[in-house]
UniProtKB/TrEMBL annotation, chain B:
UniProt name for this protein: Sugar ABC transporter permease
Assigned keywords, A-Z: Cell membrane, Membrane, Transmembrane, Transmembrane helix, Transport
Domain of life, per lineage: Bacteria
Location of this chain's protein in the cell: Cell membrane
UniProt keyword Transmembrane present: yes
Top-level taxonomy: Bacteria, Bacillati, Actinomycetota, Actinomycetes, Kitasatosporales
Positions of the UniProt region annotated as Disordered: 1-36
Primary site of residence: membrane
Pfam family, one: BPD_transp_1
Membrane topology: Multi-pass membrane protein
Residue ranges of every copy of the ABC transmembrane type-1 domain listed in the record: 125-334
Keyword ATP-binding assigned: no
Family matches, as PANTHER family: ABC TRANSPORTER PERMEASE PROTEIN, INNER MEMBRANE ABC TRANSPORTER PERMEASE PROTEIN YCJO
Residues spanning the membrane: 48-71, 113-134, 146-168, 310-329
């Protein structure tokens, strides 16, 4: 397994590579084309989001005309207000923040202690267990929904948030991610030193592992928050739009009305996406770094 | 390494006992007992705490991953109704024969395959190209990376609803743009291939940037001297890409292919919301009904949870076959390189 966990050498090697390869290949003029392709790709990535806002600022009638609108209208706040109330979005926001928050915090905590054990402690069966963890990443959770649904029915948990939170706590990715980070970020000597001082395993976790793992924990927390916030199938099965929805359930419900008002639907979609876009705008750099760190394996 | 821990386990008892203790004179009997007790506790800690640390993951996985997965197989041999999910009547293989006799099962399997190919192949090829460009020295490189991750932050529900509008037959932006170059309006919802292309577009839009970042990370991990020696041999930038970059990325490519394949096999939200009025049937002619949708239709619309379990279990077996094929291919690749 290769990992690119330290950022320093990465950028350093990138910097030194370009001029050398360019000189050898003699194709320095690739620049403008590369920028053009990137610009196009960026536009395609962002356009549907911008257009969501544009459509949300119009009314249903304007969206049934040609050509489609390219600029903002004046209905944005009316539509946001309507969507907020129609789709039960207020409650959905509170629910989803709670679900995603609890689930992200729990996953981060459990993944850090498990990742630490896999990275730094020796115990019988460690490698076999790690293989199992990686193996579980290959099993899509969607295939388990029917028995989970039966459990929820038996426990009378439909429309209750713990029905969504509990299954979301299984995160093999989190364990793997924290293991990869701690392998390189936590020197063995520090753990040994704490041991020599008489620290128990729990003390090592609190006073050595958590401080060292903090950057990775933050990134994992954000990734898990995004994932749980956007989770669709399982919440859609156990929560109802008018009962106790998450944002995704509420937004999906907007599209299934009998006489759909498109600008209203777009307003709901915008509301459901905006919080995460704001998070990405602020922490984008860290999230990008986290995905690049966690993804490389082979 | 285990010996390292043994010494580490032994020394702190001495070290821990030393400070603050009056020097001179041997330890009392009581003190010796105390040390022994501490040392036992210490050994127990070192020996068992790793298991304590990994056990929450495995317990959660057992309860919400493995057990439901296996129980799906058990439920697939029963008649289970949605209205009374706890009543199970043994029916043997009947659920399987029922779904294998259903043309819509095969239709869904075929759609899952074609949508999977249409969405995965262009997605990964584009991601590779974008990653290659991002690997140049760029101004504002962070901006591009964050921007292309914005679709990843967008939920399936929000993305699908926007694309439904963009793909609208009469007033959609895409048909309007095509009209500008002289192409007649395409019925993106009702035409089979057009609808599959549209559903795939949602998937491609959401995941290309993410995969590009994964490839980029792998590209940055390629040792510099490989490029240097290739450049010394006179290899052009293009040749370097094919002879250095691509071979080094093989494990990563395999990884993304596996992940995308699993994702494609589970496709549900996008086709469900692409024609909200038709819902679980995946279009008026089932033209973009995937296996995930078919499962939902059988279980939650037709209320046959047992039959839905049989579909889930079939999908699981398909994934196992894919996994084995993947394993064989990756072994071949490793052997050949």
């Amino acid at each position: 397994m290769t990992t690119t966990l330290t950022k320093q050498p990465e950028t350093a090697s990138k910097r030194s590579r370009r001029p050398k390869a360019a000189r050898a290949g003699g194709t320095l003029h690739a620049g403008p084309i590369a920028y053009a392709v990137l610009a196009l790709f960026t536009i395609v990535s962002l356009f549907p989001l911008v257009w969501t806002a544009i459509a949300a600022s119009r009314d249903n009638q304007r969206l049934a005309e040609t050509p489609p609108p390219f600029w903002f209208g004046s209905n944005l706040f009316d539509n946001l207000d309507l969507a907020w109330n129609d789709a039960n979005l207020g409650e959905a926001f509170i629910n989803t923040t709670f679900v995603a928050g609890v689930s992200a915090l729990t996953i981060v905590f459990l993944s850090t202690i498990a990742g630490f054990a896999f990275a730094k402690l020796r115990f019988k069966g460690r490698n076999a267990m790690m293989l199992i963890v990686i193996g579980t990443m290959m099993v899509p959770p969607q295939l388990s929904v029917i028995p989970l649904y039966m459990m929820v029915a038996k426990l009378d948990w439909s429309d209750q948030l713990q029905a969504v939170i509990l299954p979301s706590l299984v995160s093999a990715f989190g364990v793997f991610f924290m293991r990869q980070y701690l392998l390189q970020a936590l020197p063995d000597e520090i753990i040994e030193a704490a041991r020599v001082d008489g620290a128990s395993s729990w003390r090592v976790i609190w006073h050595v592992v958590f401080p060292a793992a903090r950057p990775a924990m933050a990134v994992l927390g954000m990734l898990m928050f995004v994932q749980t916030w956007n989770d669709f199938l399982w919440p859609f099965l156990v929560l109802t739009q008018n009962g106790n929805p998450t944002v995704q359930v509420a937004v999906a419900g907007l599209g299934r009305g009998y006489t759909p008002d498109q600008s209203l639907i777009m307003a709901g979609a915008l509301l459901g996406t905006l919080p995460l876009l704001i998070v990405f705008a602020i922490f984008g750099k860290q999230i990008v770094g986290g995905i690049m760190q966690g993804a490389v394996k082979g | 390494m285990s010996t390292g821990h043994d010494t580490a386990a032994a020394s702190p008892v001495k070290g821990g006992a030393a400070p603050g203790r009056p020097s001179g004179g041997g330890p009392t009997e009581q003190e010796l007992k105390r040390r022994k007790r501490l040392s036992r506790r210490w050994q127990r800690d070192v020996r068992w705490s790793p298991y304590a640390f990994v056990s929450p993951f495995f317990l959660l996985f057992l309860a919400f991953g493995l057990f439901p997965l296996l129980y799906t197989g058990w439920a697939s041999l029963h008649q289970v109704e949605l209205t009374a999910p706890t009543d199970m009547n043994w029916v043997g293989m009947r659920n399987y024969t029922r779904i294998f006799d259903d043309e819509f099962f095969w239709n869904a399997a075929e759609n899952t395959l074609t949508i999977g190919i249409i969405s995965t192949v262009p997605q990964l090829l584009m991601a590779m190209g974008i990653a290659h460009i991002l690997n140049y020295k760029l101004r504002a490189s962070t901006f591009y990376r964050v921007a292309m991750l914005a679709p990843y932050a967008t939920s399936i529900a929000a993305a699908s609803l926007v694309f439904v509008l963009l793909f609208g037959r009469d007033y959609g932006m895409i048909n309007w743009a095509l009209g500008a170059v002289g192409i007649d309006n395409i019925d993106w919802q009702n035409d089979k291939w057009a609808s599959q292309l549209a559903v795939s577009t949602i998937v491609i839009w959401r995941w290309t940037g993410y995969n590009a970042l994964i490839y980029l990370a792998a590209m940055q991990a390629i040792p510099q001297d490989l490029y240097e020696s290739a450049a010394l041999d006179g290899a052009s930038r293009w040749k370097q890409f094919f002879h250095v970059t691509l071979p080094s990325l093989r494990p990563t490519i395999l990884f993304t292919v596996v992940v995308s394949t699993i994702g494609a096999s589970q496709l549900f939200g996008e086709p469900l919301l692409f024609d909200a009025n038709k819902g679980a049937s995946g279009g008026s002619q089932h033209q973009f009904q995937t296996l995930g949708l078919y499962l939902y239709e059988q279980g939650w619309v037709n209320q046959h949870l047992g039959r839905a379990s049989a579909i889930a279990w079939t999908m699981f077996l398909i994934l196992i076959v894919i996994g084995i094929v993947n394993y064989v291919i990756s072994r071949r690749l490793r052997a050949s390189s």
